[in-house]
C-alpha cells in the first residue's frame, strides 16, 4: 500500500503546467489582461520555427486544462503568469518546492481522497479529509506529537485489513454462508465425492479416454451456475465448438478436476469459493461464491 501511495502521489499530469500565481497574490482578478509584452521579432528561420513550435504544441491544451485540470478559461491569463513564473524562475529551489506542493496537493485532493473514501465506505470507519491533510503535512515536517511515523503506518495498515474484513462480511457474508451450507448438504448426496481440497464432483458420464496433463490443451463443453441455479456462462454462448484451453489456465477447481477426468467424461463440479474466484467480484459471480459446473471433456487437442 505504501508503494502504491507513493506512486499515486508521484503521478504528475502529462502536461506538467500549473498555476503558481497564488504564491504572489491573495486574489485573482477575472479576465485580467496580461502585462504589456515586448513585440515579437522574427529575424531568421530558427526564430520563425521556434515561435511556430510554441504555438503548435498548445494544440488541445485548453481542452486538457478544462477537462483534466479543472481550469476555468476565464483565468487563462493567470495560467500564463504561472507558466512564465516557472519558465523564468530557473532553478529556484523555493519555486520548485512550491510548484511540487501544488501538484501533489491536487493529486491527494482529487485522487487519493476519493479512492480512500471509497475504500472505507460501508466499514466501521471513514476518512476525514481535514485530518488526513494534517497528518500528511505533519509527517513531512517531522512532527511526531500525535503519532510516530511507524506507529501511524501500522495503525493505517491494521485499519485497512480490519475494515476490509468488516466490509466483506457486511456485503458478502450471506453469500459465503449460502455457499458453505449448499456444499455441506451436497456432500451428503448419493454419488457426490468430496476431495481433500474441498472440491466436490459427481460422475454423470464415465469416459475411457486419456487423462489430460497440466500442459495439454483440452476441448471442453460446459455450463456454469450459481448455487441458486442462475446460469452465468456456458460454452454454447461462445459458438458451436468446444472451448480450448490448458488446465493450468483456469480456476483451481477446474484444474484439479480436468487432470483427473478421462476424455469422454461428463462431471458435475461443485466448487467452493476458495477454488473458484475467491474474494474477487466477477460480474454475476460475487465474492465468496461457490459454483456449479457441468463439464464435458470432449478431447485433447492434437491427440
Number of strands: 7
Provide the β-strand percentage band: 5-15%
Question: What is the 3D shape?
Answer: elongated
Oligomer: single chain
> Strand count, sense and closure of the main sheet?
7 strands, antiparallel
Secondary structure class reads: alpha+beta
Entry keywords:
single chain; 303 residues; alpha+beta; seven-stranded antiparallel sheet; 8 helices; 13% strand; disordered N terminus
In words, what does this structure look like?
- The chain has 303 residues and is of the alpha+beta class.
- Helices cover 41% and strands 13% of the residues.
- It has 8 helices and 7 strands.
- Strands 1, 2, 3, 4, 5, 6 and 7 form a 7-stranded antiparallel beta sheet that branches.
- The longest helix has 38 residues, at 149-186.
- The two termini are 47 Å apart.
- Residues 1-34 have low confidence and may be disordered.
In short:
Helix content is 41%, strand content 13%. It has 303 residues and is α+β, with helices and mostly antiparallel strands.
Q: Secondary-structure map with pairings?
A:
Layout: H1 2-10, H2 45-56, H3 61-67, H4 76-87, H5 93-119, H6 129-140, H7 149-186, E1 193-194, E2 200-205, E3 218-226, E4 231-234, E5 243-245, H8 252-258, E6 266-271, E7 291-300
Antiparallel strand pairs: 1-2, 2-6, 3-4, 3-5, 3-7, 6-7
Helix pairs in contact: 1-5
